[in-house]
Amino acid sequence: MSTSPYAVEMLHITKRFPGIIANDDITLQLKKGEIHALLGENGAGKSTLMSVLFGLYQPEEGEILKDGKKVTINDPNDANALGIGMVHQHFKLVECFTVLDNIILGAEPNKAGFLQKDEARKKIVELSEKYGLFVDPDAKIEDITVGMQQRTEILKMLYRENEILIFDEPTAVLTPQEIEELMQIMRNLKKAGKSILFISHKLNEIMEVADRCSVLRKGKYIGTVNIAETTPEALSAMMVGRNVNFHVEKGEAKVGEPVLEVKNISVASRTHATDAVKNVSFTVHKGEIVCIAGIDGNGQTELAYGISGLEPLKSGEILLNGENISKASIRYRNTHGISHIPEDRHKHGLVLDYSLENNLVLQRYFEPEFTTSAGFLRQDNIHAYAEELIEKHDIRSSQGAASLARSMSGGNQQKAIIARETERKHDLLIAVQPTRGLDVGAIESVHKKLIELRDQGKAVLLISLELDEVMDVPDRILVMYEGEIVGELDPKQTTAEELGLYMAGAKKDEVKA
């Protein structure tokens, strides 16, 4: 029996990629039965370090100890054999398989070559009940929520009897309620003696569940602190190397003419018979930020799709600067004043196999600045423009403008989209979850940018699930519940509790009264 107090030790790990040292002499020690947070800015090297531990990358220097003994991890199968499991930021699930099939994939129980699914099902149901996971083993992955997909990933680790569990940005895609449930699941796992590494840059979550926290900055190890003895402010200063202002500074809004007028629009739902957006009307003026708040899945996504042109309207009309654009193409909307930071950065925000510089001119490459009259791209101009945006928005990647979008960290992919959409000419910015997956320093600069655009006389439609963002950034809040606008609130006059009641539908009848 090992006498080491540590489940895993990563000692002096260095990992290099072309043009960048992702991990520079990092030491991380995970105690048995603790939740240990790994905190750092976007691109600080957190996911790389965990990928080394899980066998996806091999370090150039350093060693890994498990229970005090040196081990070699060549691939994820070695990691699994050592009891190390990982839930990745972008889940690794087969969409058309059931939950059960995904969990047993690669570890199929068989007798004489025949699959023994009943045994596996029994074990999965038991694990599910023991840890409060409650997933339907027969549901298909493509039909279940993101929160349920994540629980499937957790069950995959538990089914393999992993003792060391790595969670990479586990809350980036969850609703506030799902986050609360995940925190409880993590506490249950800890009680059962599991050791957890939890990558995050959400300070309130780290303060709530972690025992200790190690901080990385630009690939280097900054230090480890006990959560009971620190504050969010101290952690954020360790993480970004300066004090971060958690409060959004803004003056009074100078509201002008209407820019966006939405009149009685309805948008069909892809998954239900009822419409996702039902007869919704509102206006966004020059010089104001209007936020659509609500619990995820109440029609906000489809509303953004309808306005940006990603989904057709069933009824109603949309006016942009007085012009009816209800049936206009997406390109027409883009060239006539709409910028859009989409909710799903991989599906609608980037072409992952294009370079960063080509992604930064996606809606502008056909303009004379970037294309010759003969139709050839002016690659030098594209490169120069990209360099300017990379510098201004602090977009970090291993090979600068030439980096493939796919190779960049999630937070830096998001920064690239924000740079592209806020820097091109527009009258209306539709920003859907603009700070999802960003660290505190980057969130601060996005909020400043939104206020700056407002003060330049632009109209901003913000769609957010982050309660702090909803309370802090906009000039007006519209609450969506089951596809309808159920309330309009003034952020200066309302409270988080009142907002929560509207979001849960508890105040719906009062609005209509």
Describe the structure.
This protein is α/β, with parallel strands linked by helices. It has 3 domains: 6-240, P-loop containing nucleotide triphosphate hydrolases (Rossmann fold); 247-337 and 426-513, Rossmann fold; 348-424, no CATH class. Helix content is 33%, strand content 26%. The protein has 18 helices and 22 strands. Helix 13 packs across helix 14 (410-423). The N and C termini lie far apart (69 Å).
What are the key terms here?
single chain; 513 residues; alpha/beta; Rossmann fold; 6-stranded mixed sheet; 18 helices; 26% strand; globular
Describe the protein's topology.
Blueprint: E1 6-17, E2 20-31, E3 35-40, H1 46-53, E4 61-66, E5 69-71, H2 76-81, E6 84-87, H3 99-104, E7 110-111, E8 114-115, H4 117-130, H5 146-159, E9 164-168, H6 176-191, E10 195-200, H7 203-209, E11 212-217, E12 220-226, H8 232-240, E13 258-267, E14 277-285, E15 288-293, H9 300-308, E16 315-320, E17 323-324, H10 330-335, E18 338-341, H11 345-349, H12 356-359, H13 379-393, H14 410-423, E19 428-432, H15 440-455, E20 459-464, H16 467-472, E21 476-481, E22 484-489, H17 496-503, H18 508-512
Parallel strand pairs: 3-10, 3-11, 6-9, 9-10, 15-20, 15-21, 18-19, 19-20
Antiparallel strand pairs: 1-2, 1-4, 4-5, 7-8, 11-12, 13-14, 13-16, 16-17, 21-22
Helix pairs in contact: 13-14
